[in-house]
From TrEMBL:
Bilayer disposition of the protein: Multi-pass membrane protein
Signal peptide location: none
Membrane-spanning segments: 305-324, 336-357, 378-399, 405-431, 443-466
Source organism, top-level taxon: Bacteria
Protein name in UniProt: Magnesium transporter MgtE
Subunit structure, as described in the record: Homodimer.
Length: 467
């Protein structure tokens, strides 16, 4: 069945032996919306049984809050814990409000420490204490270890449940141990972490070496170097290391060199996605915590702060325009052309800003290359400014038949686009030095700069050349 089936062809019942992979995410959403509207509880349960925890979490987050509880009640008990761990905080919290600590304990009994820690971050302290008391000693220690880290540190994202072997045993002993504990390895495992008697990380043993070498060989003779990550490192810096080294996982060590966990590629991918989402929201002046189906008042409140800041910057630009009332009253054409100057500068600056913020997030901007980029953007702005200044001057001449107006609009566009490009790189660099997230406030500052420079150059030149 095609994944792009139009709405009118969507069946009211999916075949019992259907393959979920054959249906697009949007198709599943539309189908589930029909089931929810009809309150077809049994059909919802049957549908959800065929979805993974990732798909169910995504579907829950695609519904307004009032429908989520209905869907949640139909989620199979066996995977409710996995689904909770995949949900965003604001989606998870309302679902857990009316669930007892006994039920949460049942949901978490087969989860790893990472997922349990994620869920317990959402509940009250009394519920957390009750659930922690039901965990086995090893899992409880791992959850407590994760909770000692700040949200931005590698340690809060690492997997504390690691497969480690000693360096002073032979390969045959390693194989025997793995056979006795067959659940330790998954399909993606390719290396084992090697430690000494004091838990100091020594390196990696690949599964290929484990198999192909003489089984009497000591592990210490086959250790490969490992790229390690400190548990207190900023998670964004860790993501940059993963990208630059092209690694799938990395052992995590503390300041004493002791192995405390491992950071997996799937965790890094989630971090990168969260960072992209956060950057997009910040650039638009939206709170990082605002979800798509957040309550109306919550969304209105989170956006109003930046709307207020934008109003202040707009009033500042208006104050600049107010200084040139005389020339505007004299030449009406200037009022018509003013938005063109501001718009061209705004677009040019936004292009530079987007590229620079992405480069900063990727760890590609720093040191001497900042000067090179500043020089590059100066010339890019100047070249584009001159090209579009000539084009706009020509259009203005055809429109108003006034060489002075054409010259004013041309010079103003060239000046503003050049200034916009330079501002697009200098503003985020300056904010970073001040320990302010460039994605959060750079766009507002850039808009203010391009408006003020554009209006001042345009109306200032008009005052000189026309009046």
């Amino acid at each position: 069945m095609p994944t792009s089936m139009p709405d009118q062809e969507r069946p009211s019942v999916l075949p019992g032996d259907y393959n979920p992979a054959e249906y697009s995410a949007e198709y599943k959403l539309l189908y589930l919306q029909d089931l929810v509207a009809d309150k077809a509880y049994e059909a919802i349960t049957e549908f959800l049984e065929k979805q993974s925890e990732y798909e169910i979490a995504s579907l829950l987050e695609s519904f307004p809050a009032q429908n989520r509880l209905l869907i949640w009640e139909q989620v199979p008990e066996s995977i409710k814990g996995e689904v909770l761990a995949e949900l965003e905080y604001d989606t998870r919290q309302p679902l857990l409000e009316n669930i007892s600590s006994q039920e949460i304990s049942l949901f978490t009994q087969d989860l790893d420490a990472q997922d349990i820690s994620e869920i317990l971050d959402t509940v009250t302290e009394s519920v957390r204490t009750s659930v922690m008391a039901t965990l086995d000693e090893e899992t409880r220690v791992q959850v407590n270890k994760l909770d000692t880290y700040d949200d931005w540190e590698v340690g809060s994202y690492m997997d504390p449940d690691i497969i480690q072997i000693r360096d002073d045993i032979c390969l045959a002993d390693v194989q025997d141990w793995l056979r006795e504990n067959e659940d330790l390895l998954d399909d993606e495992s390719q290396e084992l972490l090697v430690v000494d008697q004091s838990q100091q990380l020594l390196g990696l043993l690949s599964l290929v070496d484990l198999i192909k070498h003489d089984q009497n060989t000591l592990v210490s003779e086959l250790i490969d170097t490992a790229i390690t990550i400190n548990d207190r490192l900023d998670i964004q810096d860790a993501a940059a290391i993963f990208r630059s080294e092209d690694i799938r996982f990395a052992p995590v060590t503390n300041s004493y060199g002791e192995l405390v966990g491992q950071l997996n590629g799937e965790d890094i991918m989630e971090i990168i996605q969260d960072d992209v989402d956060s950057t997009m929201k910040n650039l638009a002046g939206v709170s990082q915590d605002e979800e798509l189906f957040a309550p109306i008042l919550t969304s209105a409140k989170s956006r109003s702060v930046w709307l207020g800041i934008n109003l202040c910057t707009a009033l500042l630009a208006a104050a600049v325009i107010g200084q040139f009332e005389e020339v505007l009253a004299e030449v009406v054409a200037l009022a018509i052309l003013m938005p063109v100057v501001a718009s061209m500068g705004g677009i040019a600056g936004s292009q530079t800003l987007t590229v620079v913020i992405r480069g900063m997030a990727m760890g590609q901007i720093g040191g001497s290359n900042r000067v090179w980029l500043l020089n590059k953007e100066l010339w890019v702005g100047a070249i584009n400014g001159i090209i579009w200044a000539i084009i706009m001057a020509f259009i203005a001449q055809l429109w108003f038949h006034d060489i002075e107006i054409s010259a004013v609009i041309g010079f103003a566009i060239a000046i503003n686009m050049t200034a916009a490009n330079v501002s697009g790189i200098s503003i985020p660099l300056m904010l970073k030095r001040m320990n302010i997230d460039p994605a959060l406030s750079a766009s507002v500052i850039l808009t203010t700069v391009t408006d003020i420079v554009g209006f001042m150059s345009f109306l200032g030149l008009a005052s000189v050349l026309i009046l």
